[in-house]
Amino acid sequence: MIRIKNGYIITEQDERKRVTIYIDKEKIKAIIAGNDTTIPCDSEIDAEENIIFPGFLDPHVHFDDPGFTEREDFETGTRSAAAGGITTIADMPCTSIPPITTGKNFDNKLNIVQPKAYVDFSFWGGVTPEQVESNKYKKTLKELKEKGIIGVKFYTISGMELYPKMTIPDMDKAFRELETLNLVCAAHAEDFNLVQYYSRLMEKMGRTDAKSWFEGRAYQAEPKAIWSLLGITEKVKNKLHIVHLSTKEGLNAIKWGKQHNLDVTTETCPHYLLFTIEDLERIGPILKTAPPVRREEDKNALWEGLQNGSIDFIATDHAAGKYPEEKSSNNIWENYAGIPGTQLMVPIMLTYGYHERKLTLSKIQKLLSENAAKRYGLYPEKGSLKVGTDADFTIVDLNKEWIVDPLALESKGKYSVVAGCTLKGKVAKTIVRGTVVFNEKYGITGNKGYGKLIKGNL
């Protein structure tokens, strides 16, 4: 039996409630108001007057293992998560070799990455045009569902040879099968034709500046792709999720879908909430992502979406490039499109969401934990403070100020878009199933291989 003492939880009414939490066999045994010592314990965890959140999730990461481990692997990725207060991550299927498009590939990845994991993890599954056209997709999607994937990832544009873009006819067929399987269809939404044409136009013009990336990934590519995806979902009635939302117009399309009772959700990422095209021009390749950061009005619309609930949760799209080799060319097109984000998501949202934009702690809790867990069939085991569920907690010192040092990141990518910034709010302890895997005073305290696969239960 373990006792967590001297901490506060956040109620639905956004009130701080002092509690004592008891943990037994990796589960929450009891949550008792006030300071309590009535239950005998073998050990104690001191929350030191800080906030105890349900363990935070990062439901969209690329930890590149196996396949691209020169950029990231499951050990460094999950260490980064632990240090960032993330107790469960969900890894995408596309940046693995082979991609997670069959049950066999799922097992192969699991066998490789589980011995490296410091925190719990889930897998996204995948499907390719070739599988749809050969009619193998029904068998492989059913296999993946049985293995425990939380959903399936689609690209309307892709530069990955082993994970090509899906056409509308292919997505229609796959969405119908996934509706039957009750799985979420998550889509990278940028219109292929618009991006291909304007990116090539930039190349023909000899443009290599940072803004040419922004102009090549045409603004209307995102809303256009979202409208196409909504068009399929309106017909099929599947569960649709738009990843890394970056535009005001894309959000307007999603609002339309919600208003018309489509089962659509979306996420955005910290970099779209903090930066604009002017920052990309100033910072350069380190801030290159796909889609790119947008305009001031888009940034403000995304914050408003978090406040009013039209954006459902936060994810990082963590994708560390090999640094500095892949993030330092004077030609923006030669740089890798991705940034590490998992370790800094929580302090960024506390600094700019809670302290500056006045998002309530109750809303922060939903955006970083509860909502994603519910969407992907991980709740209440993950994302809740309910007796009998996994004892996952993120203990946060809300007011501690500190300066971001990229060299201190656990990720292989030792760079950050907020390098040198002063953040307010720091993860004090990360607890996965009752075990402290990160302690601010000592660093990583968990063991490699402790993290386990968490299956979706939709």
Task: Give an overview in words.
The structure is a single chain. By secondary structure, the chain is α/β, with parallel strands linked by helices. The chain has a single domain, classed as Metal-dependent hydrolases (TIM Barrel, Alpha-Beta Barrel). Helix content is 33%, strand content 23%. The chain is built from 14 helices and 17 strands. The strands form 3 sheets. An 8-stranded mixed beta sheet has the order 3-2-1-4-14-15-16-17. A 6-stranded parallel beta sheet has the order 8-9-10-11-12-13. Strand 2 (16-24) and strand 3 form a beta hairpin. Helix 4 (137-147) packs across helix 5, helix 5 packs across helix 8 and helix 6 (192-204) runs antiparallel to helix 7 (210-216). The longest helix has 16 residues, at 221-236. The radius of gyration is 21 Å and the shape is globular.
Features:
single chain, 458 residues, alpha/beta, TIM Barrel, eight-stranded mixed sheet, six-stranded parallel sheet, 17 strands
Please provide a brief summary of the model.
With 458 residues, the chain is of the alpha/beta class.
Supply the CATH architecture: Alpha-Beta Barrel
Question: What are the segments in which pLDDT stays under 50 over at least 5 consecutive residues?
Answer: none
The geometry reads as globular
Count of strand segments: 17
Across the major sheet, the strand order is 3-2-1-4-14-15-16-17
SS-based structural class? Answer: alpha/beta
Average pLDDT for all residues: 98
Write down the domain tally: 1
